[in-house]
Amino acid sequence: MIEFFTEAYKNTPWIVIILEAITFIFGIASVYYAKQENILVYPTGLIATTITVYLLYRAGYFGDMVINIYYSVMSIYGWYKWSIKKENTNAVAISRTSRHEKLTGFGMFLLTIIVIFAVYKAFGYEIKTENYLDIFTSGLFFTAMWYMAFKKIENWTLWIIGDLIAVPIYAYRGLGILSLEYVVFTILAILAYIEWRKILSNSPQTS
Length: 207
Fold this sequence. Notes:
Blueprint: H1 2-7, H2 14-35, H3 41-59, H4 62-83, E1 85-86, E2 89-90, H5 99-122, H6 129-149, H7 154-172, H8 176-201
Helix pairs in contact: 2-3, 2-8, 3-4, 4-5, 4-6, 5-6, 6-7, 7-8
């Protein structure tokens, strides 16, 4: 098990290993803060995603790189949305998606798949089986990030599904730290869903 994590990093520059470690720490912190409905989810997430953009560009995974650029943009937008106050309380409260929001999310999922596919084609890279999984999870994560900005509980369902797919993908690529990170993400996302559901059940919501 230890060899699995060390083998892929034998010829990796120390600066890259340090950047991956920083991403690991801030990525987990971001999901933890999201679970707590704490606005720090966004600054910590922004640090993780911007570093990840560089790491994925360096590794040549352009589909994942594009989605992390989107994460960075959505972190700024979500940070703004969560900071809005109304009568000294957060203007955005945890809620479920309406029918319209579900349709919007599905449309965003399909649009993301088309755009990421186009990115791969634009860079002239062969789309392998693992890349199709990248494209699919990108659709899930794009939509999840959008739902999170509006505190829709369904964001956690999408994160859980995407994280479970990402774990073996990164393990297969030899990116042990990222694979382990997504294992932790999955656990935290499950706990966050449970926590948000409790909050939602105790707070009457309107669609």
